[in-house]
Amino acid sequence: MRIVVDAMGGDNAPKSNVEGALIAAQEWKDTEIILVGDEAQMGAFLKDKPANLKVVHASEVIEAEDEPVKAVRRKKDASMVVAGRMIREGEADAMISAGNTGALMTTGLLVVGRMKGIERPALAPMIPTLDGKGMLALDLGANMDSKPEHLQQYALMGSLYREKVHGIAKPRVGLLNVGTEPGKGNELTKHAYPLLEELPIHFVGNVESRDVMNGVCDVLVCDGFSGNILLKSIEGTAGALFSLLKEQFSKSLKTKMAAALMMPELRSLKSTLDYKEHGGAPLLGLSGLVVKSHGSSDANAIKNGIRQARTALQNRLVESISNEISGK
After folding, report:
1. Which among 26, 205, 286, 327 counts the fewest CB atoms within 10 Å?
2. pTM score, two decimals?
3. Signal peptide location in the record (predicted)?
4. Are the beta carbons of 25 and 53 closer than 8 angstroms?
5. Superfamily name and number for 2-118+285-326
6. For 255-278, how does the pLDDT look when each residue is reduced to its tens digit (9 = 90+)?
């Protein structure tokens, strides 16, 4: 299998992307890793290049502040666009980028292409849960406005992802809402509810945001606007919590000693809430496998994103979703 990495995307590019790709190439000899980006900039971090790591030069970069559609259309030689083109032309099987989310979504739609039968691809990151298993949530930002039929497609794709990539039999699928009763919510969720009941999935009904981290379902379905607010709220709360803990444990010698004793447990807690452990969020509904890594991803996050892509490819995720949508 061939996995292409947008080496110039993200806050720590190209260093973290190159280092993550190197770790992955050394660990998985059966996988060809392709780094796309400025060859000169990448060269500083490529002193020992494994045989299964390839470099493809791209002269342009899509920046965080670029307007997505214009950037994708005008910067034909941008690393992200070149990577997407490699997917479309069959030169790679999956791509990973920590770059501009809007531009990656646009690349997915305009360059890679939508899957037949899917109206709106969805961004599907993992939300941490207290049991450590995590919850796949979609859509968390690809589409700000959704129709009930879109949520129905998200539910089916999310269920297949958790089954194929995470090995969960009959994943529990919930609909994000303001109450658990079937009649609750706005027009979107009221109309989406019966559509999810029709699907060949394990639909467990409405889920309130306060219960999300308790692991009440394996897949959480929502529109991109609500989902993105939920994700940012969880990220912000986790960050604030660790800042408060650090402040409290630094107050005196006694609290510093307590912190030293609790360090293994604190590290475990941080790992449970750390997005880097999950690697990235797939853009489900495209004709090829595209994974969005967090903008501040380090080498470990990139490596985990590659691991995630490998598992999806091994389990023929894209083909499984396509067959289910087309009724084959």
Report:
1. 327
2. 0.85
3. none
4. yes
5. Isopropylmalate Dehydrogenase (3.40.718.10)
6. 888 878 777 776 766 666 665 556
